[in-house]
Amino acid sequence: MILETRDLSHDFDGLQVLSRVNLSVQRGERHAVIGPNGAGKTTLFNVITGHLAPTAGRILFDGEPVAGLPPHTLARRGMGRSFQRTNLFLKLTVLENLRLAAAAGGRGSYDLFGSVERLRPPIERARGAADAVGLAGRLGELAGRLSYGEQRQLEVGVVLATGPKLMLLDEPTAGMAPEETTRMTRMLEGLPREVTMLIIEHDMDVVGSLAERVTVLHYGEVLTEGTFDEVKRDPRVYEVYLGSA
Q1: Chain centre to alpha carbon of residue 10
Q2: Of 70, 115, 149, 201, which has the maximum CB count within 10 A?
Q3: Is the pTM of this model over 0.85?
C-alpha cells in the first residue's frame, strides 16, 4: 500500500466537502477517482497533497502519517502532482522546465543559471522524463510554443522529473481534442510501473483504458469502489454520474 486515507474529512466554513473518505491505493496501481462536478475530487487531491489541511482523519503515504505536511515536504518524499490548469514556465524551454523540476526533487542543484554541463544528474532525469512523455524531440522548444496537448504532456513530464513514487494527475485530458486525448492516454499507459498513478478524470474511455481500480465520489463521500466494469454496472453510479440512459 502506497497511499491510504482513513475517515478523511474536510469542510469549508462548516460546509462538509469531504466526509470520512477511505481510499487505498496499491503500489504500482493505476487508480481513478470519478464523480460529478462538486463531488470533492479536487479537494481530496488538495488535502492529500498538503494544499489543504484535513478537518479529521488520517493520511498514510508509504506507511507514514503525512496529514498536514506542506506540499514541498510531500514532494520530497515522493508525492508528485499535476493540476487542472497548465502550470509551466512558458518562456523557458521544455528541457529547462524539466531540469528545474528534476533539481527541485532534492537530488540536483538549485543553480538555475549555472552551466548545463555541471548539472548532469538533473539533465539526465529531465531527458528521461521528456522521452517518457513523448517530447524528446522538442527539448529546445519554448513551452509556450507547444500545442495545448503537448503542454499537458510536459506537465506530466515535470511531475516525472521529480522522481515520484506516487503521481496524482488532476484531469490530464481536460480540454483536449480527441486525437490529443488518445495520445495522452497512450503515453500514460506506457509510464513505468514503479510510479503509482492516482488520476481524476471525466472521460470514461480514458478511465476504462487506464484504471485498474475506480473510486466514485458523490457529495464528498465514497459511493462505491471497484474495477471499471464493476463500477460501470452499479446502478447508483448511473443515477448520480453516468446518466440513466
Answers
A1: 20
A2: 201
A3: yes
Sheet containing 166-170: order of strands:
79-82, 166-170, 196-200, 30-34, 213-218, 221-226
Sheet with 64-65, strands from edge to edge, namely 15-25, 3-12, 56-61, 64-65
Three-class SS of residue 135? coil
Look up residue 219 and give its amino acid.
Y
CA dist 108 → 63, 103, 125, 143, 148 (Å): 26, 4, 10, 22, 29
The burial of 2, by beta-carbon neighbours within 10 Å (0-12 exposed, 13-18 middle, 19 or more buried), is given as buried
- Mean pLDDT computed over every residue of the chain: 90
What percent of the chain is modeled with pLDDT above 90? 81
Helix orientation angle between 148-161 and 120-132, rounded to the nearest 10 degrees: 130
Return the number of other C-beta atoms located less than 10 Å from residue 159's C-beta. 23
Q: Is 130 left (phi over 0), alpha (psi -120 to 50) or beta?
A: alpha
For residues 177 and 100, give the distance between their C-alpha atoms in angstroms, rounded to a whole number: 29
Alpha-carbon distances of 65 from 16, 52, 152, 162, 198, rounded to whole Å? 23, 15, 31, 21, 18
Q: Express each pLDDT in 4-46 by its tens digit.
A: 999 999 998 878 999 999 999 999 999 999 999 889 999 999 9
